[in-house]
Amino acid sequence: MDAKGYFDILPTEEADWVYFVNERIIKYNLSTHEYHDLGEFPLGRPFFYKGSHHGLHFLTREWKSQLVAMRDKDGQGLEEAYRLDFAESGRGYSLWRNGVVPGEIDFINFYGSDLWVTTQKHLHRIDVATGKVLERQDGALPKMFIHGTRGYSLFSSYYTVFDFEAGRMLCSERRDRFVYEGKEYSSVYKSLLLHEGILYVSVRVSDSFLLTAFDVQTEEFIWQDHWNGWDIDSVHIVGDRMIALSHNNIQIYQRAD
Q1: Which of 106, 136, 209, 234 gives 20 to 30 Å between its CA and that of 189?
Q2: What Rg value do the Cα atoms of the chain yield, rounded?
Q3: What is the 3-state secondary structure of 42-103?
Q4: Alpha-carbon span 124 to 255, nearest angstrom
Q5: What pLDDT sits at residue 2?
Q6: Are 36 and 26 in contact (CB under 8 A)?
Q7: CB 159 within 8 Å of CB 219
Q8: Does the global pTM surpass 0.85?
Q9: Under a CB-based contact definition with an 8 Å cutoff, are residues 187 and 204 in contact?
């Protein structure tokens, strides 16, 4: 394929077919490796792919102040379904920029027919199909990992539990201490996967990096493994194997009885 660069991979409504997207959009078959160059991607760079839900693909642009929902165009690419602009409604003070800045989309979560969007100042509940804002409240939700009606997250230095059905926060508490090799350290978290009630979390303590397992029922860490050099980027579980990636390092674990 005469195409270079980083591509986002978006699902299509056809089995085995995906869209590779950067400045161009390429339809690609994962089984046969057949592909079709469908031309320039209509949004233009820069944009950031945030996920797909209920047949729509969500991307941010304009310095993350706009959320664009795109839908499949009869297998021949994507077209815009609707666009939401949070530049004014989310305008607020930024510690990073030391001043008031236009609203930026920090996190997006999907639950049922709802889209939950976090900006600097507010949490918005939006109808996925139409883009209509149904509710706005003070607060924020990081990237949540959902089991049943509840979402769980260990992110930065906080543990968060949110009831998506009721639309209310159940827990948002600071957890910035972690015990490693018998000593307590200041810690930073990044949740990676929720599987069978266990939240798999990348933990940074001092100059060390750990892959850990956190039981959302007991709210305790039940396992940890030391890694060298980098935060863990992703975790995948296939059967009794767990595959973890950090920078250019892959480790495969096997579940013990």
Answers
A1: 136
A2: 20
A3: CCCCCEEEEEEECCEEEEEECCCCEEEEEEECCCCCEEEEEEEECCCCCCEEECCCCEEECC
A4: 39
A5: 67
A6: yes
A7: yes
A8: yes
A9: yes
